[in-house]
Amino acid sequence: MKRLLLPLGVAIAMLIVPGVTLAESPPFEFKKDDRAVLIGGTMIEREQESGYIETRLSCHFPDRSFTFRNLGWSGDTVEGISQAGFGSVEDGFKHLVSHILALKPTVLILGYGANEAYEGKVGLPKFLKGLDRLLKAIEPTGARLIFLSPTRQEDLGPPLPDPRAHNADLALYRDALKLEAEKRGARFIDLFAMIPDGAKASPRLPLTSNGLHYTPYGYWRLAAAVEEGLFPSPKPPSNGEPVEHPVGFSQVASELGKIPGGYRLRDYKLNRLPAPIPPDGGPTLPLDGYKFRVWDLEPGRYTFKVDGQTFASTDARGWGAGVVVRKGPEFDQVEALRQAIIAKNQLYFYRWRPQNETYLFGFRKHEQGQNAREIPQFDPLIAAREAEIFRLRQRVPHTYELIREGEVGK
User: Fold this and answer.
1) Does residue 7 have a cis bond before it (omega within 30 degrees)?
2) What is d(CA 99, CA 192) in angstroms, rounded to the nearest whole number?
3) CB 341 within 8 Å of CB 67
């Protein structure tokens, strides 16, 4: 019998690149029935259109039911300035706090500091004071806090401005947020350091459309950084060699059954779904995909199949080292999951931010306020999507085969 090693179960055999700065914190844990709420400005609000962060984080605990809600608002600050509507800044703050409290979050993901950083060093005390006020206002939730640092402004060259001065200010706010997180015993994810200047790293595919606002591929990279911040990779060994690790899951060794023409692992479930494939033809990251490895094979070339479909081919030596797989039914499932998350996000957006809010709840509600009764009707639609999301997170058995080329598996 040949031996099969699936070291990662889902994002199998993730490789850590020597030289990458890795987080020191232990893996975060989403508990059963957790309610994670995202708050912040433009970066947070627009994330709901791609769903990459929720998709990646959800896959780590496929058998636990927990939900995400996005309360991001473009241009917002810790004072809720963008939510004031026709009222005062104080009204915006109350609007923000009331919605957070109503959701009763157990996990709160905060993405502030990017807008406030435009005030530079002089505005930092005001920002910290506002942050403290916000956290005290929502303290009754008892939510576990995750601070996301501001991301750097991408250098796309002229005619856009040189971002160096603004990035220096963003770094100041990043450092202040890190200290606040440490003081409060909260998780801190340094997106500023973890996400490079994409335009310099890959001129063909920058991460933003204008230096500030992320493209779909940019959100894919952003989600990978958030995942790494919550589920950090172990440090590489002192010799600098890459290591394989299971992202919190134990290694799985199974017997690979002999069949005519090759070997088969029938009805095997990965530990969790892999990461979504990148959009826009963007490059993958070393930590994505799963590695299928079989050693002691007889010489020859072998084709890898999942549920009868071919997805890779190499010789016995290549399979002994392991082949990273980045397509197949598992990846189709994670994309279906992401699409369900996007649909849920859209329904919830309509629920908490209806287009005709002024007529439903504002100073013109005397005209159409009777239609406000329709807003709660989104709830069962959202619940149905949540059920679909939970279903799509579940591990599904597949049959994996390695067939020697020139022979036919049966």
Assistant:
1) no
2) 28
3) no
Is residue 46 predicted with pLDDT exceeding 50? yes
Q: Are residues 91 and 197 in the same domain?
A: yes
Convert the pLDDT of each residue in 211-224 to its tens digit: 999 999 999 999 99
Predicted TM-score of the model (pTM): 0.87
Q: Do 205 and 298 fall into the same domain?
A: no
- Note the Cα 23 to chain centre separation in Å: 16
Among candidate residues 216, 188, 223, 195, the one with its CA nearest the CA of residue 56? 223
Domain boundary among 190, 205, 230: 230
Question: Encoding tokens for residue 40?
Answer: 């912040």
Of 230, 264, 283, the residue at which a domain comes to its end is 230
Using 50, 70 and 90 to split pLDDT, how confident is the model at 12? very low
Which residue do the tokens 């013109």 mark? 364
Which of the residue ranges 124-133, 149-158, 253-262 has the most confident prediction, judged by mean pLDDT?
124-133
pLDDT digits (tens, 9 = 90+) for 324-366: 888 999 999 999 999 999 999 999 999 887 777 654 455 556 6
Least confident piece of the model among 45-54, 146-155, 174-183, 188-197: 188-197
Contact 192, 174 (CB under 8 A): yes
CATH number at residue 226: 3.40.50.1110
Q: How far apart are CA 205 and CA 298, in angstroms?
A: 42
Residue 64 DSSP label: S
Nearest to 246, CA basis, from 5, 7, 6? 7
126-129 long-range contacts (CB < 8 A, ≥24 apart) are 127/77, 127/78, 127/173, 127/176, 128/176, 128/180
Q: What is the pLDDT of residue 16?
A: 30
User: What Cα–Cα distance (Å) separates residue 62 from each residue in 272, 284, 302, 396?
Assistant: 6, 23, 32, 11
The tokens for 258 are 């002999």
